[in-house]
Amino acid sequence: MPIDAAAIPHLEQREAAPVLMVDGTPFTLLAGEVHNSTSSSPRALAEALDQAVALGMNSVLVPVTWELVEPEEGAFDFTTVDFALALARERGLRLGLLWFGAWKNAQCFYAPAWVKRDLERFPRAQMARGQNRMVLTDFHNMSYSALSLFAAATREADARAFAALMAHLAKADPQHTVVMVQVENECGEQGGAREHSAAADAAFAGQVPAGLVEALTASRDTLAPDIAAALDAGSGAGTWEEVFGASAEELFTSYHMASYVEAVAAAGRAENPLPLAVNCWLDKGHKPGRFPTGGPVARVMEVWRYAAPTIDVFMPDIYVPYFCDVCDEYRKLGNPLAIPETATYAYASAREIWAVGHHHALCFAPFGFEDMGKPFDASAGVLFGADVSDPAFRIPQDPSEYRAVTERLSGLLSLDPDAYGTPRLNAASRERADEAALAMGAFTVDVTFAAEGLPGAAAVLKVAEGEFYVLAMRCMLAFRSTDAARPHVDLLVLEDGEVRDGAWVADRRLNGDEAAIMRYDEPTLLHVTLFAYA
Ligand code: DGJ
Q1: Dihedral of CA 344/349/351/357: which sign?
Q2: How remote is the CA of residue 246 from the centroid of ligand 1, in Å?
Q3: What is the Å distance from ligand 1's center to 315 Cα?
Q4: What is the pTM of this model?
Q5: Is residue 384 lining ligand 1, measured as CB closer than 6 Å?
Q6: CB environment 449-463: b (16+ within 10 A), e (fewer)
Q7: 194, 297, 370, 377: least surrounded by Cβ within 10 Å?
Q8: What pLDDT, in 10s, does the model give residues 394-450?
Q9: What is the residue-averaged pLDDT of the chain?
Q10: Sheet hosting strand 25-26, strand order edge to edge
Q11: CA separation for the pair 425, 428 (Å, rounded)
């Protein structure tokens, strides 16, 4: 039966940001990503999904691994996908699936044994000539290996398996429990800025595709300054070194990594038009070769846009203190924000409010949410390359606060789903500034944060001129008129409450002392109506 593309989850461009449409309405994955091994076990996944429900989440990001899907070449087994679908449906959750194919954290952990064993057909990336193992002397001495980007057999096998997964979903998931799929996981190469096999050297000595130079030239304004400078100084046509000088190896690897992922994504898209995304291990200011080079870091997003047109969303995995800056960076080239991984520690709740309220993120997902509330595990932090100077890592996220925020955020969005992707929804976060003025038509909402303690955040939804719903946590609010002819403001209604089935249910009418000082420490959902007069 042909797939009805309009009924399938898809991205829709709105005034302020693209939104993910699911069942005809904008849907935000207020999600968590499970630990890597959870989805291999129905027992472990069921427990994790129960936790997701307890945290107020509406969706979960779940790996599907090549090694379990295709244990023998050509013999596919979707048991893990089918139990994930069933467990999610029982709980009313949506899923984002993560294809752990040839690439997982810049390595090939999840390639099936028949791929790992066949070094001839599926060669390893030689980051130094003759070496099958990447050496990162400044990192750690683990055996570290990736499959080469320059082996057609690897790309084709990965693409076949991914296509089989997408075809399986087209049959097994007519109700669209799965709303998006991530292709590979934190792809990129370490231990050098490019591969050094004979095939890689030959490609590097070849000509840069003219289309790539045109695309980068056309988006010169958004290029990272060093890449723009290299492009300006280059020959405009010729070999990678001639065209891109000092940036040649990084752009070469980015182009080939993006082209590899495009081949896999396109094979999947031919079977099923679900939105496709890639996630990214950030460069964190490191040099190419030290961070997974070629992955969709913001500085090479222009290359990815050109070489991987089937990818709908580029998603940062954010474990750094400059959370807000990363979110901003990932909005370039019209990219919607989606965060498939972020620290599960304190700050997660405030970051959720801000990413969703300010950037209209398609997804916000603390990684390993199964552990929310537990003390920080420093060895795990180092393992996943987190920047442990991020204060977010020092204090566990209180799960009950996370639940309160996520439920209220979900309620706020359900009051007016069509505000998503429009300027009628905005947010402020103390991580961005101690004070913010959110312009909302005839009124401005002033948000002031306490300088000490955990960061606060507030999201404001305008439903009519002078009528707002606000989710406030660890902040003070004040309202101003922007109409010079009517500068004074009266509060007509101030209520706290909750949203049930998309409708506002007031708890307390707030007035007197409770309206004179609008200060909220706990996550609080408010309904506000204002009147401006001369
Ligand atoms: C980033 C990866 O994408 C995840 O799969 C996981 O390995 C985390 N790091 C942390 O362990």
Answers
A1: positive
A2: 30
A3: 13
A4: 0.96
A5: yes
A6: beeeebbbbbbbbbe
A7: 377
A8: 789 999 999 999 999 999 999 999 999 999 999 999 999 999 999 999 999 999 998
A9: 95
A10: 10-13, 18-22, 25-26
A11: 11
